[in-house]
Amino acid sequence: MSEELLALFRRTGALLDGHFVLRSGLHSREYFQCAILLQHTDIAERVCKMLAEKLRSFDCDSVVSPALGGIIVGQEVGRSLGKRHLFVEKENGKLALRRGFKIDHGEKFIVVEDVVTRGGRVQETIDIVRAHGGIVTAVGVIVDRSGKAKPDFDCPFVSLVEMNVENFEADKLPPDLAKVPAVKPGSK
Description:
It is a single chain. The protein is of the alpha/beta class. It contains six helices and nine strands, in the order H-E-E-H-H-E-H-E-E-E-H-E-E-E-H. The chain has a six-stranded mixed beta sheet, sandwiched between helices. A three-stranded antiparallel beta sheet has the order 1-2-9. Helix 5 links the parallel strand 6 (108-116) and strand 7. Helix 3 packs across helix 4 (70-81). The longest helix has 15 residues, at 41-55. It starts with a helix and ends in a 10-residue tail after the last helix.
């Protein structure tokens, strides 16, 4: 599955090489631009169905995802599981439950996202669900690029592909990477 997925990333031009600043603030030579991959609806359906199959054994009433990157993933995973999908989005610089979405007390959720490095957006989403009385039974992502620093979400964490991608703090860039202008292609 991992090789098939990586081939799809490469074929669609969604696996980028260069100097990237990730949402986490870390720098990397590689960037997974899931939006490029998921713009192809047939691929989005297939990839998210694979993720849904890995999540099917976890009890859930609904699927939730952080905007912006997780919206397509959440919609397609929700469709595959036959569950409703809602998303959290930025409000005053932080993620929030908006648009009239409701979380019932005791409602069980699976949180899904496109890519995780440190897991900050996923953790924010989990915190929102729990603050509204919901329960998170699992987290699922397309790409886990956290390596040895795997985040602990206090629930099962599954991915379609695990990548050991080098990440660097801004003040600890290798000389070759420091010479390349950095770009930040992801969500703001």
